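Q: Convert this sequence to structure tokens.
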Amino acid sequence: MNWKRLPLGPLQTNCYCLWNEKKECVLFDPGEEAGKLIKWLKANQLNPLAILLTHAHFDHIGAVDKVREAFEIPLYVHEKEAKWLLDPSLNGSQLFAMSEMVRLKPADHVIKNEKTLTVGSFTFDLYETPGHSPGSVSYYHGGEQVVFAGDTLFMGSIGRTDLPGGNHKELIKSIHDNLLTLPEDTIVLSGHGPETTIGNEMDSNPFLNGF
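A:
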């Protein structure tokens, strides 16, 4: 399999594409610039099967409807943030005075207590990682040893917790209980910035010392 990081929009939110040898793919967090993303997918002859959200803040969902309509694919989101898709006051687009409020159609699939998720030939272990937001989810693909962590964990940093529903103590617990237990060579694909590894963050992330 292969994966690609595609920073989109003014906040350079990372959208990720993971694809197999059949050119089937899943997309994570298409936050902005739907036209650019659709053009890239078609140019690389990739066939999206689904959109998976790590969480439903506006900068991670802005391109969702245009992309899922272009490819007629389903959208997955955690139940705690299903209503966020429809409400700018919850997804943050109203809070940040965006020029256009983000209101999406409802999700096709709502994640509840599932421990795994299979889409086509792709199977992920699901980890609820609240703290940055109450419905944050991390998707671990053991075969590729990558975890799509959204805004939970970054290179040398962690997600902000000053937005509605954020909780610093809960975030630190999520990281320690669900992410730092993964193999140390697991690649962490974050919502912003470059990739890192679990081992690197265990050794050097100043926010995780002394827990």
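DSSP finds six helices and 14 strands in the chain.
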